[in-house]
Amino acid sequence: MLKQVKLLEKDVVKMKFQKGRLKFVLPISLGVALASYIMLANKFQEVASRDRIFIVIGATILTAVISYFLFPQEGDNPNDRGPY
Q1: Are the C-beta atoms of 28 and 62 separated by less than 8 Å?
Q2: Per-residue pLDDT averaged across 70-74, rounded?
Q3: pLDDT at 12 over 60
């Protein structure tokens, strides 16, 4: 059993926190937050202000998580020779 676990640990690629990704994640997240707030304020006045804030926060967090994993950094996958 321990031998199988050690074999599985070798195959798992551990993902480190990359500060370089933040230069893409933060501007995209801020853009989404600003655009969603403006859109909610102009086109959907019937939505309560507290709910608008929750929608903006949810959209911003979802965008940050998705963009963090979609923008690869050099060294994420050693077999990949794609453009960085």
Answers
A1: no
A2: 71
A3: no
